[in-house]
Design goal:
three-stranded parallel sheet
Amino acid sequence: MLTHDVATIIMYAGDRINQGLPMPGVVEVIATAPIGQILDDLELFILCSQPGEYEDQIIFIPFS
């Protein structure tokens, strides 16, 4: 799941992980980041990832 809603989604995702419940993974991006940079970084993230690699994880993508 891709989100910029850190106030809600991240909390619920963390709760699921802590309870041992399945959670496909959450990728958080900064809402104010330029859309072109977000798309470029996500493309690289997807191309360099394996299916299921980020299950039960919360990933923060930093932007320069």
